[in-house]
Amino acid sequence: MIDRRPNHRTRLRSGAAIALVMVLALVAAACSGNRSTAKPSTTSPSGSTGPTTSSTIIDTSACPAGSETTGVTGNTITIGTSVAQSGTYAPFSAILDGESAYIDYTNAKGGVTIAGKQYQIKLVAKDDAYVASRTVTNVQSLLTDDKVFALLNVVGTKNNLAIRDLVNRECVPDLFAASGATQWGNHQFPWLIGSELVPYPLEVKRFVDYLKQTKPNATIALLKADDDFGQSYADTLTQLIKGTQLKIVKTEQYDSTGSEVKTQVNALANTHADVFFLGATLLACPAALTAASDAGWHPITYMSGTCVSKVLFSIAGPPANGVFSVTPLLDPADAKNDATPAMKLYKTQVAKYKPKADLLDGIVGYGWTTGALLVKTLESAKAADRFSVMEAARTLHDVSGVGLQIPAAKWNTSADDWFVGETFQFIQYDQAAGHTNAVGGGLTNDDGKTAKLTPGDLINRK
Question: What is the DSSP letter of 382?
């Protein structure tokens, strides 16, 4: 079920008072005044390849007293989310269609079972138009007015960074943030975990590996959003081409609050670079592809995995043909996938619960999969409390068969590895066929590699 009530600007009530000595100890151990930190992991014995033996990854000693089961009432668990449902980034609302369809499907089967008890999931969604300050207001309202148990798939890098201190201070799980940013690996913020989106450094690495094999001396023109999202791509690309013959010849950035990129793309086209690297999202992606084509520039093109959507490819039309990207999921636009049980279930249930949703849109499929990952995580929790659910999200083990997850893929998290979507497919769009195709061999398995591939201080950057 889904409740889309309007926002209320209220101030978040502070947690219970904590003894001064405890505060001082925590301040000494944590940065930026965070009141909850990840405990050091207890690793397996030397030479062992098994999971860590830590039973408590998250330190809850500073959490507000009595908040452990907030949002759990009777047989209902209330989950909140903030996502653009209006403005330039309104297409992100398709995520909500997929998520709510999976939740409705789960509820119709009796709900989610946690420690032997069944619960119905109630989803409360608020519109932030992809504006970080509105995300903060929404989350404050979700916590104080709606008293949600956890957040799910809040969309955007800057948006989750804006609420990170808040959810960490209040010990509220911010589950599967809709962003591949590496900042979600910062161990000072254990209450936030990223989704199955491929971490941005792994995207860049896969494409750089492709260029090393096919055009090792390529010149690269880069377009990036003027925010943390775009900078993640730029920093990683700069780092990974060091020591190679690959060269960035020009970088342009665009205003991430809109999708106007023609001037920037024209400047990049004038370089006649061999490669166009597109660190943009949503409507800026098809706009950039169209602008490049209009400028008579037809380079090898890589586009952010956040733009892998039938809708966005279709907006670009022929200029999208041949564009490279990555995905952790089956493409619902490819009829070859229709025979798989996962795709049959997805299309049947989304059509039932969200009949107006575009079943072929990868953004809807992403939402469906994230809803399935939420249910999987809740079912793995030892109890229906915030700590147990967050601990379950931090200890996923060989998760497979979730939503539209690629059948051979497995997702893992641990005390030392906080990234989910590290197994994925390198893909290329076929405009005539209307779907993406897997290229470059089988799955890329970079499990546990995100932190090592992240340049400089990006993970711990504020």
Answer: S
Backbone torsion region of residue 156, taken as left when φ is above 0, otherwise alpha when ψ lies between -120 and 50, otherwise beta: left
Q: Is 265 helix (H, G, I), strand (E, B) or coil?
A: helix
Upper half-sphere CA count for residue 154 (Cβ side, 13 Å) = 34
Q: What pLDDT digit, counting tens, does each position of 343-364 carry?
A: 999 999 999 999 999 999 999 9
Write the single-letter amino acid at 352: K
**Phi-psi region at 272: left, alpha or beta (left = phi > 0; alpha = psi -120 to 50):** left
- Which tens digit of pLDDT belongs to each residue from 203-219? 999 999 999 999 999 99
Distance CA 198, CA 20 (A): 41
Count CB neighbours of 318 within 10 A.
Answer: 11
Segment (H or E) for 77: strand 76-83
Helical pair 362-380 and 341-353, crossing angle rounded to 10 deg: 100
Q: How far is Cα of residue 212 from the mean position of the Cα atoms in its chain?
A: 28
Q: In this structure, what DSSP letter does residue 182 have?
A: G
CB 153 within 8 A of CB 370: yes
Structure tokens at 294: 């209009």
Q: Note the pTM of the prediction, 2 decimals.
A: 0.86
Best CA proximity match to 259, nearest among 398, 92, 388: 92
**φ, ψ dihedrals at 260, nearest 5°:** -80, 115
